[in-house]
């Protein structure tokens, strides 16, 4: 198996100041699930991406390797919310089945860690929503997403999968009120995500229940100032 390939994002703005992880502010993690390369990103007090490979593994051992890598990332960064890309219905039947297995394994592992769709701490977004949030177009090519990440957030990534994961993390920050400004198309995406997410719909678009009380004042202040872009 090829080891972790990760590094601080070049030129990434420190949204809450400082490059070190600051657990006093909101942190979001994005997961781009793939059997060939699992991409992860964290945004907020610390910004970083990583890619994991499970070369030489197949079947259940591969699922376990990818699950363990994702969990290690989650436990390291302790995010308030995790945003994961959902399945692409355009995928071939066999590949869709394999991705479904990985998605189920990841969701189960995240459930055990306390991240659940039902309470808004795990949010699944469609590939089209990811692309639209980054570029304004739900059918954008991967290269366009990479370019948008560099242009909007000043971030350069090593792979298009990491770009996807970073956009997912930024969606998580937007849910928590950590985005300073959102475009009209980003606000549209956020409205759709909130209204289709069981936890966020039940909470009336409020912050996830996992957010510690110490963070609630920050999030509520962001909401009252329109920081959530609603």
Based on Cα principal axes, name the global outline: globular
Just give the CATH class.
Answer: Alpha Beta
What is the CATH T-level topology? Nucleotidyltransferase, domain 5
DSSP strand content:
5-15%
**For the record, what is the CATH homologous superfamily label?**
Ribonuclease H-like superfamily/Ribonuclease H
N-to-C CA distance: 44 Å
Number of domains: 1
Helix/strand class: alpha/beta
Q: Output the number of helix runs.
A: 8
Strand order of the largest sheet: 1-4-3-2-5-6
Stretches with pLDDT under 50, minimum 5 residues: 1-24, 211-230
**β-strand number:** 6
Task: Write the topology of this structure.
Blueprint: E1 5-8, E2 27-32, E3 38-44, E4 48-52, H1 59-77, E5 81-85, H2 93-112, E6 122-125, H3 127-135, H4 142-153, H5 160-176, H6 184-196, H7 198-202, H8 213-224
Parallel strand pairs: 2-5, 5-6
Antiparallel strand pairs: 1-4, 2-3, 3-4
Helix pairs in contact: 1-2, 3-5, 3-6, 4-5
Summary, kept brief:
The protein has helices at 59-77, 93-112, 127-135, 142-153, 160-176, 184-196, 198-202, 213-224; strands at residues 5-8, 27-32, 38-44, 48-52, 81-85, 122-125. With 230 residues, the chain is an alpha/beta fold.
Walk me through the structure.
The protein is globular and about 45 Å long. Helix content is 47%, strand content 13%. With 230 residues, the protein is an alpha/beta fold. The protein has helices spanning 59-77, 93-112, 127-135, 142-153, 160-176, 184-196, 198-202, 213-224; strands spanning 5-8, 27-32, 38-44, 48-52, 81-85, 122-125. The protein has one domain: 2-Layer Sandwich (Nucleotidyltransferase, domain 5), CATH 3.30.420. A hairpin with a 5-residue loop joins strand 2 (27-32) and strand 3. Helix 1 (59-77) packs across helix 2 (93-112) and helix 4 (142-153) packs across helix 5 (160-176).
């Amino acid at each position: 198996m090829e080891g972790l390939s990760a590094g601080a994002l070049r030129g990434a703005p420190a949204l809450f100041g400082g490059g070190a992880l600051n657990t006093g502010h909101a942190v979001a993690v994005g997961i781009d699930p793939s059997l060939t390369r699992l991409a992860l990103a964290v945004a907020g007090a610390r910004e970083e991406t990583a890619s994991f490979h499970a070369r030489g593994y197949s079947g259940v051992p591969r699922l376990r390797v990818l699950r363990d890598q994702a969990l290690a990332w989650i436990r390291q960064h302790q995010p308030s919310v995790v945003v994961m890309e959902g399945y692409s219905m355009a995928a071939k039947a066999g590949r869709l089945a394999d991705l479904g297995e990985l998605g189920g394994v990841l969701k189960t592992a995240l459930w055990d860690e306390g991240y659940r769709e039902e309470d808004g701490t795990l949010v699944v977004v469609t590939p089209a929503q990811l692309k639209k949030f980054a570029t304004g177009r739900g059918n954008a090519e991967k290269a366009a997403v990479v370019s948008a990440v560099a242009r909007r957030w000043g971030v350069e990534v090593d792979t298009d999968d990491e770009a996807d994961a970073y956009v997912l993390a930024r969606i998580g920050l937007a849910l928590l009120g950590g985005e300073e400004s959102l475009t009209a198309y980003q606000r549209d995406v956020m409205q759709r995500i909130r209204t289709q997410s069981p936890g966020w719909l039940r909470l009336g678009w409020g912050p996830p229940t996992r957010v510690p009380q110490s963070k609630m004042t920050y999030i509520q202040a962001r909401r009252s100032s329109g920081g959530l872009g609603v």
